[in-house]
């Protein structure tokens, strides 16, 4: 029977090579990026975004915690809980999509409404959901971003900032006045 002292010199180079490989795998830059890209839940982390987008995603996380807390205390119905959780998921999906597409640390004020809630944004005569096209300006106050299916269908809008709203109002006014003016005769 060979003793441990006899085996140790033979195993030492193999153990060193295995330890070196493990060290390289754990400490390599690609492993560090992979570890940063995924958090404990398996979702992509928010490290790829700037502070403004991360703050908005944190706000949505807090909103979800409030909804979770209210349903746990039976302050809201399960239907209300599902609807608002789905809305928060839709807002999160759109925020991440916008941040990735624009590579910009800016998000407009986002609104997510179901078809039955369009009146909350647009009053008693909301636009028909089927008529909305991505990028379209609606009532000089919102830009339609698209539809997100998050347990149910939500229509997402970005509220135009005051400068964009003024520009839209000016365009509408100039279109009306130009359409009503008679053409000048050329000499």
Description of the structure:
This protein has helices at 4-27, 29-37, 51-72, 78-102, 118-122, 162-180; strands at residues 109-113, 137-138, 142-149, 153-159. It has 187 residues and is an alpha+beta fold. It has a four-stranded antiparallel β-sheet with strand order 1-4-3-2. It contains six helices and four strands. The model is unreliable at 31-42 and 182-187 (pLDDT under 50). Helix 3 (51-72) runs antiparallel to helix 4 (78-102). Helices cover 56% and strands 12% of the residues. It starts with a helix and ends in a 7-residue tail after the last helix. The protein folds into two domains: 46-107; 109-180, no CATH class.
| DSSP summary, beta strand count | 4
Strand content: 5-15%
Question: Biggest sheet: strands side by side, in what order?
Answer: 1-4-3-2
Supply Rg: 28 Å
Task: Label the structural class.
Answer: alpha+beta
Distance between the termini: 117 Å
Largest sheet: 4 strands, antiparallel
Spans of at least 5 consecutive residues whose pLDDT stays below 50 are 31-42, 182-187
So what's the overall shape?
A: extended
Helix proportion range = 55-70%
Count helical runs.
Answer: 6
* Total tally of structural domains: 2
Average pLDDT for all residues = 81
Q: What is the N-to-C succession of helices and strands?
A: HHHHEHEEEH
């Amino acid at each position: 029977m060979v003793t441990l002292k006899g085996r140790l010199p033979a195993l030492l180079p193999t153990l060193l090579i295995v330890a070196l490989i493990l060290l390289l795998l754990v400490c390599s830059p690609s492993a560090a990026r992979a570890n940063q890209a995924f958090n404990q839940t398996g979702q992509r982390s928010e490290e790829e975004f700037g502070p403004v987008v991360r703050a908005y995603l944190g706000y949505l996380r807090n909103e979800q915690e409030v909804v979770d807390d209210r349903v746990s205390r039976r302050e809201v119905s399960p239907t209300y809980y599902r609807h608002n959780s789905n809305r928060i998921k839709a807002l999160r999906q759109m925020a991440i999509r916008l941040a990735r597409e624009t590579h910009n640390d800016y998000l407009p004020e986002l609104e997510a409404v179901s078809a039955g809630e369009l009146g909350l944004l647009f009053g008693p005569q909301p636009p028909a959901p089927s008529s909305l096209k991505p990028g379209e300006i609606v009532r000089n106050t919102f830009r339609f971003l698209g539809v997100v299916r998050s347990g149910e269908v939500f229509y997402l809008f970005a509220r135009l900032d005051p400068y964009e709203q003024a520009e839209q109002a000016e365009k509408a006014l100039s279109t009306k006045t130009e359409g009503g003016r008679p053409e000048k005769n050329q000499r």
